[in-house]
Automatic annotation (TrEMBL):
Ranges annotated as spanning the membrane: 371-396
Residue span of region Disordered: 423-481
GO biological process: acrosome assembly; binding of sperm to zona pellucida
Protein name: ZPBP2 protein
One of the record's GO cellular component terms: acrosomal vesicle
N-terminal signal peptide: 1-36
UniProt keyword annotations, A-Z: Membrane, Signal, Transmembrane, Transmembrane helix
PANTHER family with a match to the protein in the record: ZONA PELLUCIDA BINDING PROTEIN SP38, ZONA PELLUCIDA-BINDING PROTEIN 1
Length: 481
């Protein structure tokens, strides 16, 4: 089933380590990814190559009898490989690895979730090669459970006798727990006077929680593939709960009395009077419902570090300020020590715990930052507006002064005219030839009652710009008219 999961690495290898990556090789992997058939890279790997592949999320049902996770999701066909599994947690437990490099999980728990990596090392054509595959594993379970309420009549209501009664009751129910592949958990007990005879009779109320995930609960689903195994889990959970309810009803009909004995006290028969059942669809403590598992949207996923889920809660919540959570599947968060707090909810380590004074300073600075921003923002906007207006003004002024009409009206030479006169470059019309003589330009004055004449310098008398030497000193004569 794992060989059919993926055919090519989703995360491509580091292309900087490959000398040549042919177009044919890329097309081969793309077509393979679309067709779902296994394939291997068609190019030869260079020496000391180390590939890293980031796999997708892997979900393993809690209390799975046996789950095998391969090091590589594809058949590599290498000779004499070695496998090395590593977990990101510092206090990781010992791994059970098969000869083929498969990591085995037995009775998977929420705290087994985390990030795992496997490095496969081998030799090809005398060159040592290695590939690393990384997995993110989450525990989950199909929601479903059973709450049982038992009422017993008793002559005594002392704590010592109640404890002995509960011990005997659990011993009686243990074979039933093993036969039905379920788990029983005592969730509460109380003792109060009976309404019929308050002075002589008492009622002992016992609350039990039944989990359908007992030893070998999934033995009928082991041969299923990844797509249909969740549906098999659903059917198994429902069937187990129905069988447990029937078995408990039959058991307490056949066993009406629970015997309790003590030193120097005769045995007491505690009589069973009532058995009640309530089916639930709640998540276990440390689990919450998300949409990360697409094939089971209502399944309960283990809460990651920084989050928790108390019993009978369907959602994972962030750890409050002043607490943190290190593990997957936390039912509660750990408070910081020595009066320390966290800056924000969802802390994943005690390293996020800081002194309260430091946090107050950070919060104070963060509160002052918007005020400073509101003060500086209008000033910056005003400076930008003044800069734009000044640029527009000088651009308009320079453009207005450089136009020929403006120079005629004002009678002043513009910057361009001064530069032209400095280098003695004549202004010629489009039809001017080499033999054109002096020309005059007569135009009306601004007042309309007089004319002024501007003589164009003759090309014959104008020195060549290219012929100017160090001994030639260009002269600029400006006459104010």
């Amino acid at each position: 089933q794992w060989g059919r999961m993926l055919c090519a690495p989703r995360a491509w290898p580091d292309l900087g380590q490959l000398r040549v990556l042919g177009t044919v090789g890329i097309l081969t992997l793309v077509l393979c990814s679309c067709s779902g058939q296994p394939a291997s890279p068609p190019w030869d790997l260079p020496g000391s190559s180390n590939w890293e592949h980031q796999r997708g999320l892997i979900f393993i049902h809690m209390e799975s009898s046996l789950y095998s996770l391969p090091c590589s999701p594809m058949e590599m066909g290498v000779e004499d490989p070695t496998y090395h599994w590593v977990q990101d947690r510092a206090a990781a437990k010992l791994f059970s690895v098969t000869k083929d490099g498969h990591l085995l999980f037995q009775h998977f728990q929420a705290e087994d979730s985390g990030k795992y990596s496997c490095t496969i090392s081998y030799t090809k054509r005398g060159i040592p090669l290695s590939q690393t595959f990384r997995y993110s594993i989450f525990g989950y379970h199909v929601p479903g459970g059973l709450d049982i309420v038992l009422l017993f009549h008793s002559k005594l209501c002392e704590d010592e006798w109640t404890k002995r009664f509960l011990q005997n009751l659990q011993e009686m129910l243990r074979p039933l727990e093993f036969e039905q592949h379920c788990k029983l958990q005592l969730t509460g007990t109380s003792c109060f006077p009976s309404l019929s005879d308050p002075s002589d009779e008492f009622i002992i109320q016992v609350q039990l929680k039944v989990s359908p995930f007992g030893p070998h609960w999934d033995e009928h689903c082991r041969s299923k593939d990844m797509e249909s195994v969740t549906d098999c889990y659903r059917r198994t959970v429902q069937n187990n709960l129905e069988q447990v309810q029937l078995a408990f009803t039959t058991f307490f009909k056949e066993h009406k009395f629970v015997h309790v004995t003590g030193v120097d006290i005769p045995s007491i028969h505690i009589t069973n009077e009532f058995v009640g059942f309530l089916k639930t669809e709640e998540c276990d403590a440390g689990y919450g419902q998300t949409k990360r598992l697409q094939r089971c949207l209502d399944c309960c996923i283990a809460c990651p570090p920084g989050m928790f889920s108390p019993p009978k809660n369907r959602q994972c919540s962030l750890c409050p300020v002043g607490t943190y959570s290190l593990i997957y599947g936390a039912a509660s968060c750990t408070p910081c020590k020595d009066g320390m707090i966290t800056k924000e909810p969802g802390a994943i380590s005690m390293l996020f715990c800081v002194k309260e004074e430091m946090t107050k300073q950070v919060v104070a600075v963060m509160h002052k930052f918007p005020v400073l921003l509101l003060i500086l923002l209008p000033v910056l906007l005003g400076i930008n507006v003044l800069f734009l207006l000044s640029c527009c003004y000088w651009f308009y002024k320079d453009h207005h002064m450089s136009s020929p009409r403006a120079s005629k009206k004002t009678g002043k030479t513009t910057t361009m005219e001064r530069v032209t006169s400095f280098f003695r470059i004549p202004r010629q019309g489009p039809q001017a030839g080499p033999d054109v003589g002096p020309a005059s330009d007569t135009s009306a004055s601004p007042g309309g009652d007089e004319e002024y004449t501007r003589e164009a310098p003759s090309l014959a008398t104008t020195p060549n710009f290219a012929a100017v030497t160090d001994e030639t000193t260009p002269m600029l004569e400006v006459k104010d008219r």
